[in-house]
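README: folding subset

This subset contains proteins for which both the sequence and a predicted structure token string are available. Records are stored as plain text. Below is the entry for 2-methylisocitrate lyase (287 residues), shown exactly as it appears on disk.
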Amino acid sequence: MKKTTLLKKYILDDEILVMPGAHDVLSAKIIESVGFKAVTIGGYASTAALLGRPDGSLLSMTEMVDYMERMADAVDIPLFADGDTGHGGVLNVQRTVKKIEKIGAAGMFIEDQLFPKRCGHMEGKQVVDREEMVGKLKAALDARTDEDFVIMARTDALAVYGLDEAIERANLYRETGADMIFIEAPTTMEEMRRINQEVNAPTLANDLEGGKSPLLPAKTLEEIGYNVVVFPVAVTYAIARAVTDLMTEIKNNGTTEGFLDRMITFEEFNKFIGLEEMRELEQSFYK
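--- output ---
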């Protein structure tokens, strides 16, 4: 089954799809190895990994696509990609969709924030008018070559105009053809319930540690009505803490000995990244 078809199936299954966010290619492989059905990559984690900077539309479309391509090539599970605002107008949106589909991603989302965008849980967001976003969605849907390639519409209108406007936009985006809807940053469970009662589409929840939304278990989100939950920055935050603790250990003690129980071993790591298989393939050409 195609990865696009698989992702669409997982979204429509009765059980909520839990999709962790990768920080880099290695973490994408770890996510797959633990047994998750799909992985996502977002602009927040990518900007931190590639630039060491905040999420703010600093990465170009080609930089993002290059990063995603490495992940899509490294894992066998579906990859769900961040299309940002589409990286421009409707023709830019078409180019973005074509590039992301071409590198093997199973789906993507575009959002209605005004460029340059901000993380959805930060202050100062602005959104484009409905007509502009509808045009972008039409362009995105027209650009895909595989009808199973999932295109999700994200709206950040809740923080700007309130929940009524966000729900109206969500249903408009669904009517335009979006496969899934993401209303970013509801602040209460009551808002989350209302979203799932009034939006006529599969929905996605964002479990962001320290964000504006309640941090809820996947099962609770499933009961509320969500089809998908992402953990977009959990890996990034875990890496930042672990590396800080490791560097503190080396700085204070001049050794990693006190940290070894929190590290993978040399042999384990080489096995995980496929060193033996690579050597076998290499030698097969000399026989």
